[in-house]
Amino acid sequence: MSASFEQVRGESLDAALSRARDFLQVAGVASPWADAQLLAAYALEEELGEPVSLGRVQSLALLGQPAPQALASLVEGRGQRIPLQHLTGQAPFRSLTLEVGPGVFIPRPETELLVDHALAAYRQLLAEGLADAQGDNLLLDLCSGSGAIAAALATEEPGNRVLAVELDPQAAAYTRRNTADLGVEVLEGDALELPRGLEGQVALIATNPPYIPRGAYQLEPEVADHDPELALYGGGAEGLDFPLALLGRAAELLKVGGYLIMEHDDSQGPALAAAFAAAGFERVESLQDYGGKPRYTAGYKASRAPKNVKE
Ligand SMILES: C[S@@+](CC[C@H](N)C(=O)[O-])C[C@H]1O[C@@H](n2cnc3c(N)ncnc32)[C@H](O)[C@@H]1O
Asked: Mind listing the pLDDT tens digit for each residue in 93-132?
């Protein structure tokens, strides 16, 4: 993009916000007004040295506050379609603020909903006596990236043993940083192999693996240019090669009655539901995201191995 968003000497926050919104809109940013305000909040926080809510941004704009110095370069960067979260170095996820940046997948709002389902199922396992009410259950986040799922599980159901597995060393550094104070065990390596020695012992697996079918979509620049490739593509024509392999591994790790929930592309629901049943899961369900699209498949490991499952 050739246009630039220059600092205007003595410009008010109010005027700079309007200009930023228009600039981001022209640059093709999906939510230009929200992003302009979020960047202003971040720049004001840096300048004032204290937290600044979006409501406060509005109040300060009304009161004639000057635009913060750092806003221009932030808006400029966002206009180049650098993800907002890379500019601020932070991503909100449920009650947490995670550290993110180049080299790690930015957690998405739909994965917050995956955690809701995982926690509801975990509480159901407790009610059914399939999880230990004293805690000490094994909860896994396979393909952990920023550690979002693991961190949420550890925060919202404390007292359990939570493991996070991440293959990419750069991403795993974020997994470790974001879960360091939460007692999560981070394993760096292939989720088709790790953790070892816990087969048949895991109560719950919540996973958002790479699943995009390559070439199926025109990805936005924020995704195509900034999310790591390893985080995106599931492999094979349908993007299902890795998710299906992970399903097989999850079936080995779970104990009988244990719960698996997997996020996936909205085209993959029927194939995954069939694969869950074939892999020995029961009460298999397809769950929808905020947009009403089938985004997660979940089920409980059955007490008996499936019959007539073809390899
Ligand atoms: C879609 S991202 C999800 C990250 C995080 N769970 C979230 O929801 O924000 C998928 C993650 O899986 C990791 N990954 C890809 N292949 C893997 C493998 N074989 N074993 C472990 N992690 C893998 C990627 O590096 C990436 O961090």
From this structure: 999 999 999 999 999 999 999 999 999 999 999 998 888 8
Whether residue 86 lies inside any domain: the answer is no
Structural element, H or E, at residue 263: strand 254-263
Closest residue (by CA) to atom 7 of ligand 1? 107
Using a 6 Å cutoff on CB, does residue 172 contact ligand 1?
Answer: no
SS3 9: coil
Q: For residue 104, which atom of ligand 1 is closest to its CA?
A: 27
Number of domains in the chain: 2
Ligand 1 pocket member 190 (CB < 6 A): yes
Q: Does ligand 1 lie within 6 Å of residue 231's CB atom?
A: yes
Query: 228 alpha carbon to ligand 1 midpoint, in Å?
Result: 9
Residue 149 in contact with residue 206, Cβ under 8 Å? yes
Q: What is the distance in A from the centroid of ligand 1 to the CA of 168?
A: 8
Mark whether 172 and 294 lie in a shared domain.
yes
Nearest-5° Cα angle at 22, 16 to 27: 120
Same domain, 61 and 195: no
Do both 48 and 117 map to the same domain? no
Would residue 175 count as lying in a domain?
yes
| Residue that is last in its domain, among 62, 81, 100 | 81
Q: What percent of the chain has pLDDT over 90?
A: 90
Q: What is the DSSP string of 140-164?
A: EEES-TTTHHHHHHHHHSTTSEEEE
pTM for the model stands at 0.94
Task: Print the domain residue range for 116.
Answer: 109-301
Tell me, using a 6 A CB cutoff, whether residue 171 lines ligand 1. Answer: yes
